[in-house]
Amino acid sequence: MHTLRLSFIDADTGIYTLNNYFAFFSKDIFYDSFFRTLKLSFFVIIISVILAFPLAYFICFVVKKKFRTLALLILVAPFWTSFTIRAFSWQLILSDKGLITWFIKLVTDYDVKLNFLYSMKASVFGLTLFGVMLITLLLFNSMITIDKRLLEANSDLGGNKFTEIKNIILPLSLPGLIIGSVLTFIIAVGDYAVPTLLGGGFKPVLAQLMLSTIKGTFDLNTAATMAILLVMIIIVASVPLLSLIKQVRFER
User: Fold this and answer.
1) How many alpha carbons fall within 13 Å on the CB side of residue 20?
2) How far does Cα 37 stand from its chain's mean position?
3) pLDDT of 244 above 70
4) CA distance 1 to 47
5) Dist. CA 187–CA 138, nearest whole Å
6) How far is C-alpha 6 from the chain's CA centre?
7) Distance CA 37, CA 137 (A)
């Protein structure tokens, strides 16, 4: 509540006003960072879902039961290490003089530059890695509870894998997909570390600007405005998605 109150207080006069919000959207650097944050989060969710669904399906329906725990362990194990260690490891791999370019030169004898690190693409990549893991786990949790007799009925009625996924697996795993997407969105919107260590911070997202504002000018009112906007983004995007879960469960 204190943060909300600060966002409505004018730093000079101390009166309640909307000037902090008007000032935020009137400055290009803040305005651009706001939509850059939304763009980053959108790409992270889309790519994570596209990759996580087939991965969860593979672990649940293709991998033998005795190997599923091992498959999930392999999926989660990289995230047991410190994030800082993982980020610096990816820097060594993705930099223009990193492992990938070294291997390409070794094989082709050509010097190449990836131009990948310290960009929006690198930020999307770093956050997508976590998003894929999270959504895969939640999708697997939903898929594993699907009654196998439904799949057998689909086969007996002449259905194929496409109809199985479209009419049975996707609808019944939708709650896990939605929850995973919402959690991934929350992480992507508010993350500071990935856009800084992998994205480079040259085109800052909202979380980076908020911290730099506190460190640089100690303008708590502007920082509070950014924090409230981050919360509003999460609420506006998450509530409609979460409401779909109730609708899906009601239809079931």
Assistant:
1) 26
2) 11
3) no
4) 35
5) 15
6) 29
7) 25
Q: Which amino acid is at 243?
A: S
pLDDT tens, residue by residue, 10-39: 776 777 888 888 888 888 888 888 899 999
Q: Which residues of 26-45 are buried (b: 16+ CB within 10 A; e: fewer)?
A: eeeebeebbebbbebbebbb
Q: Which residues pair with 9 in a beta bridge?
A: 16
117 φ, ψ (degrees, to nearest 5) = -65, 150
In angstroms, the CA 86 to CA 98 distance is 15
DSSP state, residue 60? I
**244's tokens:** 């779909």
Average pLDDT over residues 63-90: 86
Question: Could you tell me the pTM of the whole model?
Answer: 0.86
* Structure tokens, 7: 């966002």
Cα gap 163→91, rounded to integer Å: 42
Task: For residue 39, give the 3-state DSSP assignment.
Answer: helix
22: left (phi > 0), else alpha (psi -120 to 50), else beta?
Answer: alpha
Q: Mind listing the pLDDT tens digit for each residue in 127-163? A: 999 999 999 999 999 999 888 888 888 887 777 888 8
Q: What are the structural domains, with CATH classification, of the chain?
A: 2-251 (1.10.3720.10)
